[in-house]
Amino acid sequence: MGFELDLRQSLDQSLRANACDLLEQAAAGLQGECAQDEAVHEARKSIKKLRALLRLIELPLGRRFRPCDRYFRDIARSLSPLRDAVVQRQLLEQLGRQQPELAELTGRLLPLLPAGAGVKKPGRLLRQAATALLDGRQRVARWPPFESRFRTLGAGFRTVYQQAREPAWQLLGKEPAEPWHQWRKWVKYHGYQLRLLQPLAPDWLQPRAQRLKELGEWLGDEHDLGVLAALQLRHVPELTGGRVMAVIGERRDQLRRQALQGGQALFADEPREMSQRLKQHWRRD
Questions:
Q1: Residues 282, 157: contact at Cβ < 8 Å?
Q2: Please, are residues 109 and 236 in contact by the beta-carbon 8 Å criterion?
Q3: In terms of CB atoms within 10 Å, which of 38, 83, 160, 173 comes out highest?
Q4: Residue 7 DSSP class
C-alpha cells in the first residue's frame, strides 16, 4: 500500500499498517532488493515518513513516543556514513552541470572527496539496520489502541504545522544554516503528514502537498549550497572571498527569499484554523 490512510479500515488498523509497511519495505531494500545507494536512500526516507506519522500520534502514544522516535532516529543515523559521501559527490556533479560559475570549484573538490563511504563492513551495517527495522514492528504492536476520532491525530497535526509555520515569520534571511535546516525538517514532516491524510480531502491536501514539496526543494537547494561552501572552506580555502563564493552567497540569498515568500503564503493560517479545516473533512464511522 502507499503511504496514506485507508478509509476502509479503522484508524488504528490503518496507522499500524502504514508503519509496518514502511519498516518492511525499507528492510527489504537493505537486504538486497535494491542497489546499496538506492536502498539506503529509500530506507532513510521511509524512516522520515514513520517519524512524521509518530508525531501525528504523539499525544495518544504518551510516554512511548520518545523512545520509539529515538529508536528509529538512531537507525537512520547508523546509515548516514553510507549515504553522506555519495550525496556529496552527487551534489558536486549536479551543481557543476547546473551552474557554470561553480564548475571550477566542483571540479577541484571532486578528486578530494573519498571515493567510498569509508565503512569497513557495509554489508554488516545494512543487515543490522534491516534487522532493527523489522524488530521495530514489535514497537508498533505495543502502541495503544487508537480511537477513530479526529482528536487522535488533531494535536499532532497542529503541533507539526506550528513548528513548520513559525520560521516563515521569524527568519529574516541572514541567520546561520542550522535554523534553515530545522525549518526544512519540519516542512518535510508536515508534507509527509499531508500525504498520509490525503484521502480525507484530496482536492485540498494534494495541491498543498505539492506546494510544500516545492518549498522543500528551495530549502534543500539552499542547504546543498551551504554544504558546498563548507567543503570549499575545508579543501580549497584559497578561493574564499572570490567570485565563486559570491555566486554561492547570492544564490543562497535568492533561495531564502523564495522560501520565505512561499512559506508565508503556505502558512498564512493560524494552527488552530488549519486544524479546524482538517477536522471538517473528518469522516469516519
A1: no
A2: yes
A3: 160
A4: T
